[in-house]
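Reviewer comment 2.1 asked that we show a complete input and output for one of the modelled complexes. We chose the GEK case, as it is the one discussed in the main text.
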Amino acid sequence: MQSDKDSLYANPLGEITTFKFDDSVVNVFPDMIQRSVPGYSAIISAIGLLAGRFSQPHSHCYDLGCSLGAATLAMREQITATDCGIVAVDNSESMVERFKLNLVADQSKASIDIQCADIRAVSIEQASVVVLNFTLQFVPVADRVALLEKIYQGMLPGGVLILSEKLAFEDRRQQGLHVDMHHHFKKMQGYSELEISQKRMALENVLLAESFAVHRHRLKAAGFDSVEIWFQYFNFASMIALK
Ligand code: GEK
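Response of the prediction step:
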């Protein structure tokens, strides 16, 4: 996907305002997420492969917090089940408008329905695949269990939830190490110390990371009895929860 280079935090900002998924972010988003989330491309490709395996005939696949639709497009390429459509949801109007503008029809079997809505308010029905790719971390902690319960209730037996998140670590040394290594990763991707620290401030209280133990406990409480991490690169991980 084409993208401008992310330089939103390159110059000293007098006041750091809270991070928002607005037009300025949308313009640089593919570059930003690629250079900020270790393993992002590998996760996107694997989401496609998982959708190929888990999508069921006469079902829906959901991409919740779809941004510009990278996971949706990866799923569309791999879904072969009949009457299996993708529902892509994001509450940023800027994201949804750009995704609709970029979306071109192709020969794929799966249809794509893009909705501008809060994922806490959408209904989940007949779901064979549900993707929360770095989205739950932006949902208030108090609302997370209800959202996961709703997803579980709306899923078909044999369905999969793919949950990717920035992780926090209960062990202080592990937390320090992973934060530090992510910082080095971003430097290697060309971000300056100033960009890294201003972005960190903008995300404070917006991106709320939790430990794998907390995620697993909550997923199990929501009904998923089988939960594992299938991918991890420093403090960025992707989990699979099976119904
Ligand atoms: C990808 N999944 O490229 N309802 C709907 N959307 C929301 C909500 C909410 N309550 N909260 C946040 N979002 C994508 C990347 S980005 C991750 C996901 C990142 C949306 C928000 O508008 C943004 O587009 C997305 O979740 C998070 O695979 O930027 O680190």
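The two ends are 33 Å apart (CA to CA). We note this here for comparison with the apo prediction described in Section 3.2.
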